[in-house]
């Protein structure tokens, strides 16, 4: 399929690279040698910022004030077609750090706790394994806790200056001044950018509030530019600029409504500038080094999942087969991609399910929940002045044209945009006969991508959480074991460390007390330990709890081992991906969602799917009936089958059926089911329940005592929706 790097069998892909130290012991190629036979010590600096579109002077934005980045662009390559895999930080960063689609490895829901397959690693581990000093300052937000093996240091103080003399480095500097929250008004602020000169997109109302919000965003971009300049000056002061490739990038689109969280270009198109010093250009593009000379503009499509393999290609590490991205620089540079892909799933407390495919001109969007408005409430987003202004004017009936799109009660199943003619993506061409061939092509590319990458988005989150962690129990990495080699007391012994957990990485250090917080090294080869020294080790795997820390101490020729904490053999629970691959669940989900195109003609099919063995399939059948039974005769035919679903073993199916029946006038029977679901043991089922109570409106009033009690729910998202529902029902 065009746009996909690997066409290997999914079962094969999932089993590549498992083993105790698989992530760092995979085949590697050496750092490229120069003509004199000496090893090039290539450094890489990432300068990243948050919530920033290509709103920079060097991208032709005359409103922007970004002198440092404009200068960097003249010294490097400005990429014009770079896209995040999601319109929000956590799923986007999950794709960056792993080189994998979050929809494949199960890290697609915002702020979920993923359990990726065993072979998936933070790509920085591969660089550490070949000698790089890797630092992150300081955001992670990967949808899983970063393992201690990922970074030499990850903190607000992390810096390339902490490395050993002559050691190559990979350093990340992340600036948060452009984050969404910085665009809220501040007392006593004085805007530098003139709001009157702001360019207002057609999907916003052109009001003073919106203009001030846009001006504030540009002010923050300017402040971010100043921080970038300070970092680049540090690199110059340290005499490293001539031997360091510099990347600047934003983690997704601008932190304003209908941009951040969305997979329109306003949410996923980002700036990327890469400066390659002259002496390193032959390494960056061996066949044509002039393509990275100063002042170059590159319009190749680049996806966030391409960052990881490109880093490995530049750093001299063979790209593991399971990585889905494509290197666009270095000795392993691939052919340019034809398509990029993006996904939107739950954003904070609001559920939605959208996928996008883009080539250089056209954007195709598939809405899997077309019955849901774009204008769902998200508490954090509602703090934005522009969002408040949009909601106010919508309530007053004063929005017009493209400004109203956000609040349409439903979404089309498909959207198609010609981004050359319509860069703001406000004119949907999906029903235009002139574009039927483009629509067909993009639809097929989307289908192939969903199937080949085993997109898990249609599996309901409450069900998926149980697949990842049965009964909510975290799996724990096995305690490492030591194997003592031969040796003499004066020279020491070589110690081999192993871990029984597939996919585990091992961290180790010599000496230091039990409470030492720094100094962990990534274990890649036997460690030489001398008499009197102590060797500490622990193992970790993405999505698992770390093992207990274990210590081996040599006293003469004797070895003594003790463990701090419980000694575990490691969890042997089958991985969710392996179990999923033994079923036809994804195929059945794809089959039922194809019915979205049939409307009310699909009612008999939905009734048939109510008997499916999988809860997620039954859920989508209920939702299909709920949204397509428009006539009394259809409602009557579905009412009794949905009453039977009130006893379904899956809470989320019961909730969906109760929601439909409440809308159909059977709240006496259905409302108690929603009230009971507010007490479900799983947080996401409770979230589904309170969302349904909000959508049935006044019919939920008898449940007010139970809704008020949900304010004390331990889940923050449930609390947020509960507050919104109470505001709706109580008028507060």
Total number of beta strands:
21
Shape: globular
CATH A-level architecture of the largest domain: 3-Layer(aba) Sandwich
Query: What separation lies between the terminal Cα atoms?
Result: 53 Å
Total helix count?
Answer: 23
Structural class: alpha/beta
Helix content: 25-40%
CATH topology of the largest domain: Alkaline Phosphatase, subunit A
Oligomer: single chain
Number of domains: 3
The CATH homologous superfamily name of the largest domain equals: Alkaline Phosphatase, subunit A
Strand content: 15-25%
Are there runs of 5+ residues with pLDDT below 50, and where?
Answer: 1-39
User: What integer is the average pLDDT?
Assistant: 93
CATH class of the largest domain: Alpha Beta
Summarize the structure.
The chain is of the alpha/beta class and 732 residues long.
